[in-house]
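Team,

Forwarding the record for the chain on the shared tracking sheet. I've put the sequence and predicted structure together so nobody has to dig through attachments.
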Amino acid sequence: MKRFVSSLALLASLSFAASAADIVDTAVAAGKFTTLVSAVKAAGFVDTLKGAGPFTVFAPTDVAFAKLPAGTLDALLKDPGKLKEILLYHVVSGKVMAADVVKMKNAQTAEGSSVTIHAMGGTVMVDKAEVVKTDIACDNGVIHVLDAVLMPKPAPNQ
């Protein structure tokens, strides 16, 4: 019996250690954010998202990136400044769980402008993207999965 309890304790400690991951490592492990992770790397944004946070990331999947007009992603990957601006538009300061997101009308992004949030009938929209999965916990924040890439609204004088 003592050996069984020791084995359980060891298993529990290994499970806890294995589940601990920052936003970038969690996105990599999920396997459906390869384009997002590549964009984060190209924009020089990895260290930030591996930092202490906490951060809330509205993360578009690979399928979401595939919906962009032809050539858009390639152009963004060649323009790290614009790419980082778009990525920052997907990040909100703090760990905002789904239960809190649904109560919000908008949220200030790390890019500087706000995303519009609309919740109705079990569906949550961030701008024009639907939140398809929520509350993927990370050591330094949380990920909510989107079905589209968010694009910052142009400034009024543009």
